Each structure stands twice: as structure tokens, then as C-alpha cells.
């Protein structure tokens, strides 16, 4: 079984969502430094909660809305993004498939190791 660990990208939050996420994290993480939680109703997204540090005492919780990389979905059992076939009730349909990569980019990535070997050592 192949497991993919937290290869994600951040999504931009507006002020209302940030407040709601902080309140969500306060409820879920009371007494903890933070955690990872499923995003209700969307298999592709999850919430990261983090307790901030403060020199004046306990900090506050901040919530981050994150998205698993295509074609992975959130697996609450392992606390990470995983193949959709390994997560009951989820499919990769929650993602918008990425645009195909142009040939030039594929060529550069494919041949990057050979290109690096031709570079002089400094």
C-alpha cells in the first residue's frame, strides 16, 4: 500500500474563514499543540490547527485550510493524504485535474540530471 504524506498546497483564506477555523481548532485541540482534521464535506481538503507561541502566556490557535495534491484525498485514519482507492467513501473527483505539462518542461525535467552533470564544479 502506497501512502503519501502531507504533500499539500495552502489555500488563501479570507477573514471570516480564518476566524471560523480558529474557533474550530480551539474546540478540537483544547490542551494540545495542534492537529490535522478532515474538512467536512470535501475529501480533497483538510484543516491544520497550530497553537501559536506567546511570551505573555498561552497562545491562540490558528487554522489553515489545505488541499491534498491531485489525485490524492484526505485519509483521516492515517492523518495524511492518500490514494483515493485506499479511502472509503472518497474519490479524486473533488479535484480539478491539472493542465498537461508542455513538452519543453517535460524534456527539461527528464534530462535535468544529465544537464547538471555538464555544469562545472565551483
From TrEMBL:
It comes from the Eukaryota. GO terms for molecular function: chitin binding. It holds the Pfam family CBM_14. GO terms for cellular component: extracellular region. This is Uncharacterized protein. It comes from Owenia fusiformis.
Amino acid at each position: 500500500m502506497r501512502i503519501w504524506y502531507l504533500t499539500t498546497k495552502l489555500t488563501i483564506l479570507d477573514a471570516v474563514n480564518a476566524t471560523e477555523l480558529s474557533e474550530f481548532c480551539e474546540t478540537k485541540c483544547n490542551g494540545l499543540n495542534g492537529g490535522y482534521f478532515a474538512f467536512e464535506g470535501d475529501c480533497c481538503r483538510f484543516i491544520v490547527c497550530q497553537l501559536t507561541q506567546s511570551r505573555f502566556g498561552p497562545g491562540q490557535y490558528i487554522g489553515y485550510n489545505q488541499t491534498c495534491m491531485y489525485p490524492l484525498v484526505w485519509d483521516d485514519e492515517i492523518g495524511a493524504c492518500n490514494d483515493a482507492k485506499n479511502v472509503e467513501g472518497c474519490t479524486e473527483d473533488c479535484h480539478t485535474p491539472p493542465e498537461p505539462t508542455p513538452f519543453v518542461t517535460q524534456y527539461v525535467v527528464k534530462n535535468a540530471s544529465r544537464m547538471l552533470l555538464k555544469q562545472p564544479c565551483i
